[in-house]
Design brief:
Length: 328
């Protein structure tokens, strides 16, 4: 590790591992079709569609197909623009075309009050699985009405996913800056390293995740006895995340085994070195603030406290980390 530089670590270890899927439909992909206008104008229905679509997008739970592209593809392949597509056969064909798992159709009608009704069609099963509606008194409240109906859709979809096989996964890599604590701080200076992590989200309940973690940290020696020290760890990790739009807060705990080695000088004023190492249990806990930066990517900053249970006493450190992940 002596030849590594900070720049090399950043370039090598902040690049996420790529993953590809052959699935014909993305698990959380939604296509929102044109809303049908009943006793009202098409522009009003368009406003409702845009509001519902934005509400679905801001939950950060779905991959929303951009509606102009949806209309373009539908028009090109069916000539119908999605405006009259409401039967199961038509929605299934359009869903397969768009590689969407769900199709969302809606109507805006004006009677005594303004009423917006949304219907969610599951492409694979060819079934209407959710309906939701909301009402308002004034035309100026159309956006609020559409957002309320979309919020119901989100809640009911999440309830369906709890206990289902639909999950998110990510593979990530982080650069670590480590600050030794206690006994370790008297022997070593600041450390740096990396980790590789794989996580499965929404296990058992929404927000809970499980995964595995491999990490490496290198410390330079601080006194005349220690030249350098390094530690590795292979751990199982779990935690819980709360997501608000593109931002999320994740609390995690990791436990496993690590191999740690101290490279020390055999004699004073001599470059002759020996090594002392062994396997010990390793615990780590902390939190991360994450930001989704693209359809399949997110980055995070966070911190953690780690402890190694050595026979001679506990060894601890505090780490700061920047992470980039690929979500699929």
């Amino acid at each position: 590790m002596k030849g590594f530089t900070w720049g090399t670590l950043i370039l090598m270890h902040l690049i996420p591992v790529a993953a590809f899927s052959s699935s014909p439909a993305v698990p959380h992909r939604l296509a929102v079709l044109n809303f049908r206008a009943m006793n009202c104008s098409e522009p009003v229905a368009g406003i409702a569609r845009n509001a519902a679509e934005m509400k679905l997008f801001m939950t950060n739970r779905f991959e929303i197909l951009e509606h102009q592209q949806v209309d373009k593809l539908i028009t090109k392949n069916s000539g119908r623009g999605g405006k009259e597509c409401s039967d199961a056969k038509c929605l299934r064909v359009l869903g397969k075309l768009l590689r969407a798992r769900y199709m969302v159709a809606g109507t805006v009608e004006k009677l005594d009050r303004w009423r917006i009704t949304l219907r969610v069609f599951e492409v694979e099963s060819e079934k209407l699985i959710i309906t939701a509606s909301a009402e308002r008194n004034k035309k100026e409240e159309i956006r609020d009405c559409a957002e309320e109906a979309a919020k119901i859709i989100v809640s009911r979809l999440l309830n369906r996913w709890r206990g289902s096989s639909i999950k998110n996964y990510d593979i990530s890599s982080a650069f670590i800056f480590a600050i030794p604590a206690g006994h370790l701080s008297r022997l070593c200076g600041y450390g740096y390293g990396f980790d590789l992590q794989g996580i499965a989200h929404n296990i058992f309940i929404q927000g809970f995740f499980l995964g595995g973690l491999f990490s490496y940290i290198h410390y330079e020696g601080k006194d005349e006895n220690v030249h350098h020290s390094w530690m590795t760890a292979l751990q199982a990790t779990s935690g819980y995340g709360i997501t608000l739009g593109p931002v999320s807060l994740r609390v995690f705990f990791a436990a496993g085994m690590g191999y740690n080695q101290v490279n020390y000088y055999v004699e004073a004023d001599s470059d002759t070195r020996g090594t002392l190492g062994g396997f010990q249990p390793v615990l780590r806990s902390g939190l991360n603030f994450s930001l989704k930066t693209g359809r399949h990517f997110w980055c995070s900053l966070g911190g953690a406290y780690g402890r190694i249970f050595d026979p001679g006493g506990s060894i601890s450190w505090i780490q700061l980390q920047g992470r980039i992940a690929l979500l699929f």
